[in-house]
Amino acid sequence: MLLELARWLYAMGWMPPLFGYITFRGILGALTALLLSLWLGPYAIARLKRLKGGQPIRTDGPQSHFSKAGTPTMGGSLILVTITLSTLLWADLRNRYVWVLLAVLVAFGLIGWLDDWIKIVRRDPNGLKSRYKYALQSLFGLAAAVFLFMSADTPAATTLYLPLLKDVAWPLGAGFIVVAYFWIVGFSNAVNLTDGLDGLAIMPTVLVASALGVFAYASGNAVFSEYLQIPAVPGAGEITIFCAAIAGAGLGFLWFNTYPAMVFMGDIGALALGAALGTIAVIVRQEAILVVMGGVFVIETLSVMIQVASFKLTGRRVFRMAPIHHHFELKGWPEPRVIVRFWIISVMLVLVGLATLKVR
């Protein structure tokens, strides 16, 4: 929106070409989302309190969580609003990837909103039934995957690449739809499972989004993509603004979500952000890198899968409680210790992912 105005002012000779640089608009996008979050946050929290949007607490969870009952949830709506506004202000709205990401963000946010609403109104910690939630996720995830496949304009856009193996490239054909679907839906659920402690999910999301923004910028630049030997995806550079908006909005939300949280993200934020990360990775052809950088999300998900499989097959639990962050809580780790240590692990994994840009 503002980019078009800046272009007109530049054409008239009234403004320098600063707004033509993706990096400059990315910085503005992050700052805009951050400041909007800090400005709107107190109002949003007060509004959620008036709506009695308190978080129901599982009775089988750690006892330390019982004191959190009644803390406003659905705070993810603040994240979605600020990301959307910032992206609309600073991104090139003629870019199809921008609209795909906004559509995924809003669609999965609506699923999360429905889930949170059921938890609040019916006071049911389980929320929307799993089969209905997964059906809606599948519908929107498949729609995004099909659109990306049908609109692909280069062979690289539907080819699978692996980090460290520069000569390995597997054309997926229609199999791209399957890969894209699983990454979008899979990471949507993975981030949601991770969102169980104050600030635990949002900081890794900020880190991963920031790193994916680097990949997006390089993939959208013909010179950088050739030099770094990563897939060249024309138009992907504009995704940098969206990634920056996620980072800014996430940090703004963390201001209120840090321990002890004044507001919880809820499924409205977790499902949407996870799906957005999966979609970004698919667009820039870095699915494997997302698994590495988003390792905290992957580990949380695997812990649930292992726990369920073990209990069903043997009647025994591998962990004291799943997802795994609750396991460490029940072992006696204070909540802030679990959170910060998971953040440190996330930083390490993101650095490993970024290092693959040069190790090819």
From TrEMBL:
<feature type="transmembrane region" description="Helical">
    <location>
        <begin position="200"/>
        <end position="219"/>
    </location>
</feature>
<keyword id="KW-1003">Cell membrane</keyword>
<dbReference type="GO" id="GO:0008360">
    <property type="term" value="P:regulation of cell shape"/>
</dbReference>
<comment type="function">
    <text>Catalyzes the initial step of the lipid cycle reactions in the biosynthesis of the cell wall peptidoglycan: transfers peptidoglycan precursor phospho-MurNAc-pentapeptide from UDP-MurNAc-pentapeptide onto the lipid carrier undecaprenyl phosphate, yielding undecaprenyl-pyrophosphoryl-MurNAc-pentapeptide, known as lipid I.</text>
</comment>
<feature type="transmembrane region" description="Helical">
    <location>
        <begin position="134"/>
        <end position="152"/>
    </location>
</feature>
<feature type="transmembrane region" description="Helical">
    <location>
        <begin position="20"/>
        <end position="45"/>
    </location>
</feature>
<keyword id="KW-0573">Peptidoglycan synthesis</keyword>
<keyword id="KW-0133">Cell shape</keyword>
<dbReference type="InterPro" id="IPR003524">
    <property type="entry name" value="PNAcMuramoyl-5peptid_Trfase"/>
</dbReference>
<keyword id="KW-0812">Transmembrane</keyword>
<feature type="transmembrane region" description="Helical">
    <location>
        <begin position="239"/>
        <end position="256"/>
    </location>
</feature>
<feature type="transmembrane region" description="Helical">
    <location>
        <begin position="97"/>
        <end position="114"/>
    </location>
</feature>
<feature type="transmembrane region" description="Helical">
    <location>
        <begin position="338"/>
        <end position="357"/>
    </location>
</feature>
<feature type="transmembrane region" description="Helical">
    <location>
        <begin position="66"/>
        <end position="91"/>
    </location>
</feature>
<keyword id="KW-0460">Magnesium</keyword>
<keyword id="KW-0131">Cell cycle</keyword>
<keyword id="KW-1133">Transmembrane helix</keyword>
<dbReference type="GO" id="GO:0046872">
    <property type="term" value="F:metal ion binding"/>
</dbReference>
<keyword id="KW-0472">Membrane</keyword>
<keyword id="KW-0132">Cell division</keyword>
<comment type="similarity">
    <text>Belongs to the glycosyltransferase 4 family. MraY subfamily.</text>
</comment>
<feature type="transmembrane region" description="Helical">
    <location>
        <begin position="263"/>
        <end position="283"/>
    </location>
</feature>
<dbReference type="GO" id="GO:0005886">
    <property type="term" value="C:plasma membrane"/>
</dbReference>
<dbReference type="GO" id="GO:0008963">
    <property type="term" value="F:phospho-N-acetylmuramoyl-pentapeptide-transferase activity"/>
</dbReference>
<dbReference type="Pfam" id="PF00953">
    <property type="entry name" value="Glycos_transf_4"/>
</dbReference>
<dbReference type="GO" id="GO:0051992">
    <property type="term" value="F:UDP-N-acetylmuramoyl-L-alanyl-D-glutamyl-meso-2,6-diaminopimelyl-D-alanyl-D-alanine:undecaprenyl-phosphate transferase activity"/>
</dbReference>
<keyword id="KW-0479">Metal-binding</keyword>
<dbReference type="GO" id="GO:0071555">
    <property type="term" value="P:cell wall organization"/>
</dbReference>
<protein>
    <recommendedName>
        <fullName>Phospho-N-acetylmuramoyl-pentapeptide-transferase</fullName>
        <ecNumber>2.7.8.13</ecNumber>
    </recommendedName>
</protein>
<dbReference type="InterPro" id="IPR000715">
    <property type="entry name" value="Glycosyl_transferase_4"/>
</dbReference>
<feature type="transmembrane region" description="Helical">
    <location>
        <begin position="289"/>
        <end position="311"/>
    </location>
</feature>
<feature type="binding site">
    <location>
        <position position="192"/>
    </location>
    <ligand>
        <name>Mg(2+)</name>
    </ligand>
</feature>
<dbReference type="GO" id="GO:0051301">
    <property type="term" value="P:cell division"/>
</dbReference>
<dbReference type="GO" id="GO:0009252">
    <property type="term" value="P:peptidoglycan biosynthetic process"/>
</dbReference>
<feature type="binding site">
    <location>
        <position position="267"/>
    </location>
    <ligand>
        <name>Mg(2+)</name>
    </ligand>
</feature>
<keyword id="KW-0808">Transferase</keyword>
<keyword id="KW-0961">Cell wall biogenesis/degradation</keyword>
<feature type="transmembrane region" description="Helical">
    <location>
        <begin position="172"/>
        <end position="193"/>
    </location>
</feature>
<dbReference type="InterPro" id="IPR018480">
    <property type="entry name" value="PNAcMuramoyl-5peptid_Trfase_CS"/>
</dbReference>
<comment type="pathway">
    <text>Cell wall biogenesis; peptidoglycan biosynthesis.</text>
</comment>
